[in-house]
Design brief:
The complex is a heterodimer of chains A (170) and B (913). With 170 residues, chain A is α+β, with helices and mostly antiparallel strands. Chain A has a domain of 110 residues: Alpha-Beta Plaits. In chain A, 18% of the residues lie in helices and 18% in strands. Among the domains of chain B are: 96 residues, Ubiquitin-like (UB roll) (Roll), CATH 3.10.20; 171 residues, no CATH class; 164 residues, Dimethylsulfoxide Reductase, domain 2; 96 residues, Beta Barrel (Barwin-like endoglucanases), CATH 2.40.40. The chains are: A alpha+beta (170), B alpha/beta (913).
């Protein structure tokens, strides 16, 4: 008898507690900037694709849900295709950590629900955004040694112009 | 070489005397970084990376820093790799090397299998302290095979040491000094050496990378590996086929102690492009109303059953098809109706080569043993074009004299710079007797340019000089008599003489002469070796199986005895003249071609069936030295493409069982069943079953994995087709799991090594971990098995050998006709590699080689069987009078040689006006 009354009392007490239910989607939740949600591919400050198809995200992925193929144009490496199977992704962020060019980034967006599982397979055109994402200034090709259109050989950061082999100077 | 013991960091390790400390440390399992040392190139001490501390005795606590690669092992050497000062030394060396190294790893083809990456991690260098500017270099275009990125160079000098000193190239060298040193050509241009592709594996970092592979690039860890065997010549070099997403990406060298060891030729490395070429056949094609249309497999098989019901079926095998494919065809049609797919001339030459190798009393050296031959006679075969890797081995044999000089001077043989300096004065023991110049001429003691018949005569004269019982040659020119005496003297004086010949010029007399010389030598020197070059990757296997030549098939067809021809992987237009092919097609009701590449013959076929190429199935090939070797499946092609023997089996299942020669044919389940049946039918080929472990082989209770343990994209790579995970493809013919699950380790059988990786060694240098002794046997035993063996008969004493007596008559130049000999090209004469884009780019336009005196105009007309050919003319120095060289298979597709033809001069433009 006493137990029943106590239970009723405790239940009634909850009516006065602060509400934990969030009225999603009318009321969007706060997501911190470093929240690990939907994966995107960013571009460098010049607007070119940042991804150089090095395959490090794919190999870092613990569920093996990233696959890509390298191709090349004017010395720059690109992914010919870049595919993420979000029905397998666990949003661990290891791909972002592995990326040497800040191309792959996780964003504060988790609204990816689909009725058909096959719609969760994102191709490169679904992943590529037009901005730089979290790292506005970084451009891999300005640091790397290989020349690309707009950056001659030896014109990267901390590089000397190419050696003149015909010079007789030591 | 005696066993001894050294103490590494307090641990006693058994080792061999005569090697250097670096090698000893690596063999003892220690991880000691190095760059400039390479097992095939020796030590020069250029990079200073392998520093260790050596103590002079148990009481010495101070010791001194030495370079491990330059210090010989001696009894009770005490060294320390972990010594703090030695570690600091190595860390500073790598830090200096990385000072100019660009920030390129993500966009470098070497990334993930880079020796420099491994060594950097091994020494613990992880942050750059250097804050100043980096040196940069301009790159060169080095042709279709190799990509150049000089910024990445660490100046270890391995590339020029390999290219110039080892492979004999002269167009890659080192320029400038100190920080600026530059490894490249004097100007942009294609690397000319036939072994330039090895720079990709020799270079410890990404300066030289594989250009065709870069176009379809994939990281090492993402590719499935399969042990394979090169199909582009008869040498049988071992390779690793790497594939991803069911396309073949590249071919790498696979170490085989006895065969190719560390190096491959460019045709073998880059010739695999035919597998992905647009000329591939991917569906069955049936001719309906004169049009070839793709049909389902079942339709094709019923069509064949109808054809076979009409009359006799004759099978034509191929020297480029696997042993299993040839044997299944044999089982289908029976020995009376089985053709080897070669003309009588080729057939008889190959049979002769087989018979001579089998019966001659001398030794059958492996390619590695040929490197230590101290006198070599090349008798009428341009090995650099027909068997390039063998040519490279012969080039090494020239160094034997310098090794003996070094031994006398107590300089270890691996002390490369010193031995090469000593060797500069040493005489060469190589004699090259060929009609045309070869790449070996530069290192030869003497060369002779003569017609094949004259070379054969000289060969017989040498044999007579060594053994007077051998038939004498009459009417020999006085110069030739002296030359024969000199060569005979050198061969007799040698401890390990070798005679190399082959069927390039279609002259059986050359091979007979070579065998006679070896037989004469073997009376006193049983180590005297004979090597005969054959044209195709399975020529020897087919010779051991036997069959009828194409001419017999032609006769039967003319007599109307053949209703259906089943042709496996053979393009008859390369063997028969266009008129003969047309006659054969007209005389036979139906032709079934089972091939992987759309050859001109396919257009004549009523049925074309797509067969798996070497990368898509497992099978066995027998190399020219009689070594049966297994290649395994790297690619799992979509349904209608299957192994040749499975196609033949599928055809057989549609027939009345009474028509089959071997009823068991339809019951074979896997490759092991085929091999077991073959062992019964051909006892001589029975050991081929042991070329590699069977499909039931398990290591630690598991299959072996063919993917790496960290292959990526398993759950996504095919999700654009179907998001559900697919099971890995089954591989009934091989002990491989086709996934990343399974056993893998340095101790696995050498025939099943699908790639080299042993943490922390991720580059191809991880091979050190898979070897029992560096440069010696693999830990997993031998790969492949010799079918021609000497052990059984040797105990019975030297076998009687009857010298050949049919000595040819001397060659005399005719006034109105010329003898046309094949100019076999490294790139261009071989059938399959010419479908590979990079090889096509390297093949030069055909030209007619003429003796210097005859080249009087820029173009000439050569009248061959199939018509007149207008060809540009190229003078060939030394070519004997009355002989012209015509590129084999490039001018006339079916080119039988030697051939007497008429040559007509076209006046030059200026003369005409």
């Amino acid at each position: 008898m006493l137990d029943t009354l106590r239970t009723l009392f405790l239940t009634a007490l909850h009516a006065f507690h602060r509400r934990a239910t969030v009225q999603y989607p009318e009321q969007p939740p706060y997501l911190p900037p470093r929240y690990r949600g939907r994966i995107i591919l960013s571009r460098d400050p010049d607007g070119a694709e940042r991804c150089v198809a090095c395959n490090l995200c794919a190999v870092a992925c613990p569920v093996d849900c990233i696959s890509l193929q390298k191709t090349e144009a004017d010395g720059r490496w690109y992914p010919e295709y870049f595919r993420i199977n979000f029905s397998r992704c666990i949003f661990c962020g290891l791909c972002e950590e592995a990326c040497p060019t800040y191309a792959i980034q996780l964003t504060p967006d988790f609204e990816m629900g689909e009725y058909a599982r096959s719609n969760l397979v994102y191709e490169k055109e679904d992943l590529l955004i037009s901005g730089t994402g979290k790292y506005p200034d970084y451009s891999f090709y300005h640091v790397a040694g290989i020349p690309v259109p707009g950056k001659a050989r030896g014109a990267s950061e901390r590089e000397r112009p190419p050696v003149d082999l015909h010079s007789l100077l030591p | 070489m005696t066993m001894t013991s050294i103490r590494i960091d307090g641990r006693d390790c058994p080792t061999r005397s005569g090697i250097n400390l670096l090698q000893a440390c690596l063999e003892a399992g220690a991880s000691l970084p190095y760059f400039c040392w390479h097992p095939e190139l020796g030590s020069v001490g250029a990079c200073r990376q392998c520093a260790i501390r050596q103590f002079s005795g148990p009481d010495d606590t101070k010791g001194r820093i030495v370079m491990a690669c330059m210090t010989p092992v001696s009894e009770n050497t005490i060294i320390s790799i972990d010594d703090p000062e030695a570690r600091d030394f190595r860390a500073s060396i790598i830090e200096w090397m990385m000072v100019n190294h660009p920030h390129d790893c993500p966009v470098c083809e070497e990334g993930g299998e880079c020796h420099l990456q491994d060594m950097t991690v091994m020494t613990g260098h992880n942050a750059r302290r250097y804050r100043f500017t980096k040196r940069t270099h301009r790159n060169q275009d080095l042709g279709p095979f190799v990509k150049h990125e000089m910024n990445r160079c660490i100046a270890c000098y391995r590339c020029v040491r390999f290219y110039r000193d080892y492979a004999g190239g002269d167009d890659l060298t080192v320029f400038a000094s100190h920080d600026n040193v530059y490894f490249g050509r004097a100007e942009d241009g294609t690397l000319q050496n036939a072994f330039s592709g090895n720079l990709v594996e020799i270079c410890p970092t990404g300066v030289f990378t594989d250009k065709p592979f870069s176009a379809v690039y994939s990281r090492k860890w993402d590719m499935r590996g399969a042990p394979s065997v090169c199909v582009h010549c008869a040498v049988g070099c071992n390779t690793i086929a790497n594939a991803r997403e069911e396309t073949l990406r590249r071919v790498l060298n696979r170490y085989n102690t006895d065969v190719n060891r560390y190096l491959l030729c460019d045709r073998g490395r880059f010739g695999h492009g035919f597998v992905n070429a647009p000329t591939r056949i991917r569906t069955p094609l049936r001719t309906i109303d004169g049009q070839q249309v793709p049909v389902p497999m079942a339709d094709a098989l019923t069509a064949f059953a109808r054809m076979a019901a009409r009359g006799r079926v004759v099978g034509i095998a191929s020297p480029r098809a696997a042993l299993e494919t040839c044997f299944s065809l044999h089982a289908l049609v029976g020995p009376q109706h089985f053709c080897t797919g070669q003309t009588r001339q080729e057939h008889e030459c190959v049979e002769l080569a087989h018979a001579l190798l089998d019966r001659h009393p001398g030794a059958l050296p492996t390619m590695h043993e040929m490197e230590s031959a101290d006198a070599v006679l090349v008798l009428g075969e341009d090995v650099c074009a027909t068997a390039p890797r063998l040519g490279l081995s012969l080039r090494q044999s020239v160094r034997q004299a310098s090794f003996h000089t070094a031994d006398d001077a107590r300089v270890p043989r691996w002390m490369d710079a010193a031995v090469r300096t000593l060797g500069a004065e040493c005489p060469s023991g190589l004699y090259v007797l060929t009609p045309a110049p070869t790449d070996l001429d530069g290192v030869a003691a003497e060369t002779l340019r003569a017609a094949p018949d004259d070379i054969a005569r000289l060969g017989f004269a040498i044999a007579h000089e060594i053994d007077p019982a051998a038939p004498a040659v009459t009417d020999l020119a006085p110069d030739d008599v002296l030359l024969a005496a000199r060569i005979a003297h050198t061969l007799v004086a040698a401890g390990k003489p070798l005679v190399v010949s082959g069927m390039q010029y279609g002259a059986p007399a050359l091979m007979q002469a070579a065998a006679s010389i070896v037989a004469a030598l073997a009376r006193a020197t049983p180590e005297a070796g004979l090597s005969l070059g054959l044209p195709e990757c399975n020529s020897m296997g087919l010779a051991m199986m036997g069959g009828m030549p194409l001419e017999t098939v032609m006769e039967q067809a003319r007599a109307g005895e053949i209703s259906t021809l089943v042709i496996t992987e053979n393009d008859l237009t390369r063997h028969l003249s266009p008129a003969d092919v047309a006659e054969l097609v007209a005389a036979v009701a139906d032709i079934v071609v089972i091939d992987h590449t759309a050859t001109p013959l396919c257009q004549q076929a009523s049925l074309v069936l797509p067969v798996a190429a070497f990368s898509e199935c497992s099978g066995t090939l027998v190399s020219q030295e009689g070594r049966a070797q297994r290649f395994f499946q790297a690619v799992f092609p979509p349904a209608p493409i299957q192994a040749g023997w499975r196609w033949v089996q599928a055809l057989a299942r549609g027939l009345d069982p009474s028509l089959l020669h071997m009823a068991g044919l339809t019951g074979w389940r896997d490759l092991d069943d085929v091999l077991a049946a073959m062992a019964v039918a051909f006892p001589r080929l029975a050991p081929a079953a042991k070329a590699a472990p069977g499909a039931d082989y398990r290591m630690n209770g598991q299959k072996l994995r063919s993917q790496t343990y960290r292959a990526s994209g398993r759950t996504v790579i095919r999700s654009f087709v179907n998001v559900r995970d697919q099971p890995p493809p089954g591989s009934p013919d091989a002990p491989f799991s086709s996934s990343m699950e399974g056993a893998f380790g340095p101790d696995m059988p050498a025939a099943l090594v699908s790639g080299y990786q042993a943490s922390p060694w991720n580059s191809v240098q991880a091979l050190n971990r898979f070897q029992h002794e560096i440069g010696g046997d693999m830990r997993g035993g031998a790969s492949g098995i010799r079918l021609l063996s000497r052990t059984a008969s040797d105990e019975a004493g030297p076998r009687p050998y009857a010298y050949a007596t049919d000595i040819p008559t001397p060659h005399t130049a005719q006034a109105d006709t010329v003898v046309v000999l094949p100019d076999t090209r490294l790139f261009g004469s071989e059938e399959l590699s010419m479908h590979s884009p990079s090889i096509m780019a390297r093949a030069t336009a055909p030209a007619l080689g003429l003796p210097a005196g005859m080249a009087t105009s820029r173009h000439m007309v050569l009248h061959l069987d199939d018509g007149a050919h207008v060809l540009p003319v190229e003078p060939v120095p030394g070519l004997p009078a009355g002989i012209v060289l015509c590129p084999a298979h490039m001018v006339a597709r079916a080119f039988r040689f030697p051939r007497v033809a008429r040559l007509e001069r076209i006046p030059d433009e200026g003369e005409r006006s």
